[in-house]
Amino acid sequence: MTSKSQALSVATGDAGGEASAARSPKNYGRGTAEYRRRQDPWLRNTGGLLVLIACFFLSSCESQYAYLETAKHIPIQHNGRIKPLDSFSRQTLRLITSTENWQRKPAIAVMLEALSDREAIATAKWIRIDYFELKETLGVPKNERFFSAVQLMPGQAKIAALVQSSQAKRGKDVRPSRLEQKAEELYAKLRTLEGLSSGESIRVYPGGSGAAWMSPYTLKENLSPRFIDLVGLYKDKSFADFDEQTKLWIQKIHSLAPEANPAKLSAEVFYFRLHPFECAAAAYFLAFLLLGLFKRRRSLHALGLFSLYSAIVFHTLGIALRVFILSRPPVSNMYESMIFMNWALMIFATLFSVIRKNAVAVTAGALASGLVMLYANLLPIDSSMDVVVAVLRSNYWLTIHVMTVVSSYGAFGLAMALGHRHLILKTLNKFSPAAEEESAHLIERVIQLGTILIGTGTVLGGVWANESWGRFWGWDPKETWALITFLGYLIVIHLRYTQKLNNFGLALSSVLGFLLVLMTWYGVNFVLGRGLHSYGQGAGGMNWVVYYLILEAVFLGFILLKK
Amino acid sequence: MACYNVPLMPFIRALGSLKFAIFLIATLAAILIISTTVESIHGTPIAQKVFYNSRWFDIFLAFIWVNIFCSTLTRWPFQRKHTGFVITHIGILTLLIGSLLSRITGVEGQMTLFEEEHKNRMPQNGHTLSVGLGGKKIQSVDLNAVKKLPREIPLKEAHFRLFVTQVLKDAEEIKDIKEGGEKDPVNRAVQATLSGQTMGVHETFWLVQNDPDDPHAFFKDIGPAHFKLESNDKASAAKLVVTQKNTGKSFTMPIDQNSAAEIPIDNSGLVIRNLKYYPNAKIDGETLANSPADVPFNPAVQFEVRDAEGNIEHHTKFFIFPHFNSLRGGEKADLFHLSLRLEAAVPEGADDAGGPSFIFRPAADGRWTYRILSSRKPPQDGELQLKKPISTGWMDMTVEVNQIINRAKVSKNVRPAGAEGEENYAVEILARGKDGSEHKEWLLAGKALQISMGNQNYELALEPKSLALPFMLRLNDFRKIDYPGTQNPASFESDVVLYDPKANLTLERTIKMNRPLDYKGFRVFQSSYIQDPEAGEGSVFTIAKNPGILFIYSGAVTILIGVILLFYLHPFFNKSLKEPKEIPTAHENKVTK
User: Fold this and answer.
1) What is the DSSP-derived secondary structure letter of residue A26?
2) Which of A365, B298, B432, B446 is 20 to 30 A (C-alpha) from A495?
């Protein structure tokens, strides 16, 4: 995918090293019209703004449910954290149905409906099962995708047996079979439904300082208004009353429970409405297309830059919101590390574009960044905002270590994108000698940056390990693979220093080197599956990585054949 | 660069060449790829042993050091343009030296402390075999150091020679039951197999009337089914066997009733008095009482031991708990060094569980019978025949007798457990007296063994290796703090007291995850915890000493400074060179010059 779009980008353009017009003084005064356009690109480019605004509103087209806005803010304790009811509903619904918009209704509406008719929770066909073998084992219709808890009842003993054998295997450090993993997932879904239908998991009622919150369904509430009455109002469709009473309820809870921070709750509701990363991904792709395709058309080029800046703003905002809501560094699980990796990638790309006064880095970076973001949302990894295991909590060295290492992945990702660009342009004979030299120099600089970062990051990991358990280096697979990656790029740097590696070889190594990064980042946990760093990671997504590897192999085969 | 007429120069140049460097880096990367793959397939310990902790890996890393050292050396005398290069490479050299230092002199181990417990030793990998005489340790040997077998354990002034003949890392203790000779007492044993398709049962087991180490050997429960070997001998009177631990002499006395009289223990000067015998003891508050038959058979004996000076020890011994310390709780140290054994024969019917039972009934003429009891059906009797499955009537289960022994000798043996077993060390020792008599026995980790040689009792023990720490650590309280509303731990905390006897210093600290306690170069980390309903709460601490860490840190910082100079400030250093023509660009070949 990478290669194709990049081929598109360069097909129309000239030498890749060409500076972006906005910064190159020699393009001034080509003609008055051109000049005027340069002077005032914003006027013509309000279109871009409209696109982004549309993007924003499309992502939150829940206006017909305006009366639910207040209810979204109801604080609830779930998975060790106080979150808004909206967040809880989305997460629960995603777990059960794999989507946040069940039957085209927003999650909060689905949740309130479920609470107002709790008997229907068990009979509704909304538990998604995709795995064929599991359906077969449970003896449910294989051509259906959604099932009800009642339907699955006869198979409960089988699920329990599978979960047990799976846990026994995990205890022995053996990977459970796919069927067992899927059974575990289904078991989690059923447990969640159980919590909903008994009302036990609706912990909206503060339990006093430090204690667990309680559910009004298991403990009689002596508050006014009562939560159960709120749900009743919703059921009766008296939405105006519902809204008003909900406001009172939230006020009451905040006065009772200082641990529920209204600003954080609002930020979380805003975060989910905004979909900052989806917006950023869309804007990155747009920026790539505009910057890559329209090098001569100043207005479109400027629009591309605008789109790029908006993407970075959305991206940064998303990360900042997560940091604010969770009060923790933005690199605590695989999803966050992917998001942070391509943020670092874009920051470096922007930096290099500014230093080298051309848009090469940002154009290639925008595509890579957009793809990583797409991947982050495609992979079946945990994007929820749940608490982290104890060892990962609030540690200075850990935070610096992970952020440095993940930003090195960003730098290598940028080098990889630039490497692809270089290989394509070279194969298509679109390079002027100067542009080729510039491109290679850029790649080399980016690789140098990445190598410094991964070296520093790995040493910082050692510092953390030494501070945490007294051992600087332990040959843990993750650190060993970071070292392998470091050594790989070290060879490239040394060869380059002694002019033993030509520009083509450099570009090729930047692409191949990223495979080492991928192994360190993802493979150690999922392929090798051992070691200390297994926490903070989701499972699965192997097929997507394999697709990438196949595409890359095809691309490299093509390039090498053409050479 | 200037050329020197040092004879070794070409050699140094070759060692410090870039080609060699790239070869080393690439080989290291390849080795690490293989090692992580091996770790993934065969587990961490194997990878550590074959790769990271092996001698050849150290030598390989040493070559990298030599390469960097030589390549730095070949640039002498250093010029301004070499600043970044030299600083970076000196940093790497320092870092590697630090790693070596840590590897050789570093200490790491785990200490488990329960609340209110204190320790000043830390277990290490491996085991030591220690030999004691009269409570004094006279020799101890590190088993890791034992490479060739058999290996003699040197003992001073001993009347015998001691050898280690076998070492097992995955030992498993098994019972060996054999037919004894005509002289051996009658001791019946039966081996049978219970099998059933429906429940997927297939289990072979032994029942023995009299096993010196296991009074329960005469019955076995498999699921709800109860198997018992009946004794046709009349319940004989109970016997108390008192052994003096330092001399090994035993004294046996029959007991059938309470007796207030003083009974001398041979000619040791000790007397037993106030003896109370409970054929079926029941703990009633803090005293023992005889219970009616509603509790299982449980003989016990209680008495005092007194010496000539009037010192008194109180003992309570239960038949079914032969390994329990008999000394009354709270009593001071073992004054008289006595070891007790209570022997009793189990009366018939004392252990009937009421559920499905299978009873093997031996007969003097060798014609054994069986009886099957079932809660619903009347008892079923029959003659027992070897290798003939008997249908039990409990689902589709059958019992087949494989072996019948009338004069069984029970001995213990040790064998390798195979890959699945947990690590469990055992050594086989051979004691050879001056008269040529030999004594061979297995010793399991954590267990002790007594051997009598030349009228003296030697105690052998196989213990995990441990390291003395310069301080005593005590755990006062362990706390696990959960994320609110969940069982997921958010933090672990331990309140500890550290006491250094030399400095007479006491420190009270709280150790948390990521917040260790530092003392005299040692760091104490919270690495895990124990929450056990029976054993209570406890912490697992990692204690480490890492003497090379300063080198490692300073090396790392040096590398970073060097690299920044090299990559980003390089032009600055080059510009100030005197001959402007020789300014190399970033791509210019510097090494081969």
Assistant:
1) G
2) A365
Asked, as a colleague might, if the bond just before B77 is cis with ω within 30 of 0, I would say yes
Q: With the CA atoms of B369, B373, B378 and B379 taken in that order, what torsion angle do they form, in degrees rounded to the nearest 10?
A: 10
pLDDT digits (tens, 9 = 90+) for B305-357: 888 887 888 888 777 666 666 666 555 566 777 777 777 765 544 445 556 88
Which among B32, B546, B553 has CB closest to A470? Answer: B546
Provide the pLDDT confidence category of residue A32 given band limits of 50, 70 and 90.
very low
Which residue's entry shows tokens 């006279």? B138
Residue B581 has pLDDT above 80, yes or no: no
Top-ranked range on mean pLDDT: pick from A47-51, A54-58, B106-110, B318-322: B106-110
Helix A396-427 to helix A503-518 angle (10° resolution) is 140
Q: Which helix (H) or strand (E) holds B219?
A: strand B219-222
Asked if the model's pLDDT at residue A363 lies above 70, the reply is yes
In whole angstroms, what is the distance from residue B388 CA to residue B190 CA? 14
Question: Token digits for B221?
Answer: 């429960």
Asked whether the beta carbons of B527 and B511 are under 8 A apart, the reply is no
Q: What whole-number distance in Å separates Cα of residue B203 and Cα of residue A26?
A: 91
For residue B530 the two structure tokens come to 């124990």
Q: pTM of this prediction?
A: 0.70
Angstroms from A532 CA to nearest CA on chain B: 11
ipTM above 0.85, yes or no: no
Q: Are residues B295 and B191 in contact, defined by beta-carbon separation less than 8 angstroms?
A: no
Name the strand (E) or helix (H) holding A30: none
Inter-chain residue contact A393 with B36, CB threshold 8 Å:
no
Chain B residues touching A481 at Cβ < 8 A: 32, 36
CA distance A117 to B264: 83
Residue A81 with chain B: CB contacts under 8 Å: 483
